[in-house]
Amino acid sequence: MADDAAFRLLFDVIRLRIRQARRTRGLSQEDVAGKIPADVRILQRYEARESDVSDPRLKSLYKIAMAIGIDLADLLRPPSENELRELEDRD
């Protein structure tokens, strides 16, 4: 069970990082979806916590990271204290 909670936390951090990196670069969800190419709903579901966290598509995460201009490793690194605080503030 602890593994599930840790995975869900990591996935929430990944969502946060996608949104922050996209916004920092001045990209809309549509901009990123057009670069993948994919339906914008895929990106919206990732950012809105609506995608199934039990089976995230690594290939989709990779494509999103490349479209935004960041390394996939940046999405997968352990969460920082600031990210954890930001997630707590949203709940």
Structural class: mainly alpha
How large, in whole angstroms, is the Cα Rg? Answer: 13 Å
Largest sheet: none
Quaternary assembly: single chain
Helix content: over 70%
Shape: globular
Unreliably modeled segments: none
Write down the overall mean pLDDT. Answer: 80
> How many beta-strand elements?
0
Separation of the first and last Cα atoms: 21 Å
Number of helices: 6
Beta-strand residue percentage: under 5%
Mind explaining what this structure looks like?
The chain is mostly helical and 91 residues long. Helices cover 70% and strands 0% of the residues. The protein contains 6 helices and no strands. It has helices at 2-24, 29-35, 40-47, 58-68, 72-76, 81-90. Helix 2 (29-35) crosses helix 3. The protein is globular, with a radius of gyration of 13 Å.
